[in-house]
Design goal:
alpha/beta; 8-stranded mixed sheet; 14 strands
């Protein structure tokens, strides 16, 4: 099975204890951003971090960018947070400005992981350390580290939920099924789909899952044919409306929809409601990812079956700890390595987990990931 981001080389031992890393972060920079005291000058001078996020249109990236910036600023690092409106040229320009502005570390969630090579080559010339955040950046030897989640496991969790809910292993079916994939320019999207399709394609092939629209990729490699560019909810809604109006005209109902993330799920759910579906009996299984607040509400109301939750707070903390080690000159804690096509990138990888209605209080609210008020509890 392919790895969640690239070809996995080997498992690496954790090299540094988390407590040591947090101590290093405290040592790397004291006082507020831009502090000029002696301790800050001695250790915080290199803690100048450019944070490049893809868009403000998704709750996920707002939380990640602002959350990571706060962690670093609380420890005295200088930060520059930029959002690129899902425009690759804009992200490249912002990165160029951050390099010119003296950033010593770049944390980048790439819009297109294949196009940043030239600007990262410039960063490399300036001895800037590059951390690929959540999405691996491919075909550049300037990428030093990666932090993220096991993205194939995201798809596996979604697909396994479908298999278990429908009783496919027990031979039940046929069920009508509509699969979706994420943005073709997002390196992670192929792995979300691959993890799910490895599980579901056999049931499509044997007829237990029937795809009336015909939009069932013949293999994992064809995933982009059903991708929704930019992860747009509106585009997912339009696509689902088209499938329902074109292929479900004789009273047929869709039983299950594979949605790789919560943004697409919102659009799919809006299309279902527009077509006359009501939560409860006859509402299809709809999957998701990220535990966005609107989707947690949808889970509670019965309009979404599950979400693959990635606790991005931990990801931000791990990234901040990684930066602490880089600044302190100590070994960085990693769990695995990936070949990005040009170099071996050391990575700290986290596991996602399933959240269903019965888990919202215990996993999301009690942990502080969302408040009860935010989701109507």
């Amino acid at each position: 099975m392919r790895s969640p981001h690239g070809r996995r080389i080997r498992k690496a031992l954790a090299l540094t204890a988390g407590a040591t890393l947090l101590a290093s972060l405290a040592a790397c920079s004291t006082g507020g951003a831009g502090s000029t005291d002696a301790a800050g000058d001695a250790a915080g001078g290199d803690c100048n971090v450019g944070i490049s996020m893809p868009t403000r249109s998704l709750e996920r990236w707002i939380n990640d960018g602002e959350g990571l910036q706060k962690l670093l600023q609380d420890q005295g690092c200088t930060t520059d947070l930029q959002y690129a409106d899902n425009k690759t040229d804009q992200q490249i320009s912002q990165l160029q400005n951050q390099i010119a502005g003296g950033a010593k570390i770049l944390v980048i969630t790439a819009i297109d992981g294949e196009t940043l090579g030239p600007v990262l080559a410039e960063a490399q010339k300036q001895d800037v350390t590059v951390i690929a955040y959540d999405r691996l950046i491919n075909n550049s030897d300037a990428v030093d580290y990666h932090t993220g989640f096991d993205n194939e496991k995201v798809g596996e969790l979604q697909a396994t939920y479908i298999v278990d809910s429908l009783g496919l292993e027990d031979g039940k079916g046929p069920f009508t099924f509509e699969p979706f994939a994420g943005s073709p320019d997002d390196n992670n999207a192929r792995y979300f789909f691959s993890g799910a399709w490895d599980v579901l394609l056999p049931y499509v092939a044997n007829g237990q899952l029937v795809v009336p629209s015909g939009k069932a990729p013949a293999s994992n490699d064809d995933w982009a044919s059903i991708g929704i560019l930019g992860w747009g909810s509106d585009d997912a809604q339009a696509e689902m409306e088209n499938r329902l109006s074109s292929f479900y005209t004789g009273g047929e109902k869709v039983d299950v929809v594979l949605s790789p993330n919560d943004s697409l799920a919102l659009g799919i759910e809006a299309a279902l409601k527009g077509a006359g579906y009501s939560a409860g009996e006859g509402w299809p299984i709809v999957t998701g990812q990220d535990a966005d607040k609107a989707n947690v509400k949808a889970i509670l109301s019965g309009e979404q079956a599950m979400t693959a939750w990635k606790d991005t707070r931990v990801l931000r903390e791990r990234t901040a700890e990684m930066i602490a080690s880089i600044v302190a000159g100590t070994e960085v804690e990693t769990t695995t390595e990936f070949d990005n096509g040009a170099t071996t990138v050391k990575s700290y990888q986290l596991d996602p987990e399933v959240v269903v209605k019965d888990d919202v209080q215990s996993k999301l609210v009690d942990s502080g990931f969302v408040s009860a008020a935010d989701v109507g509890l």
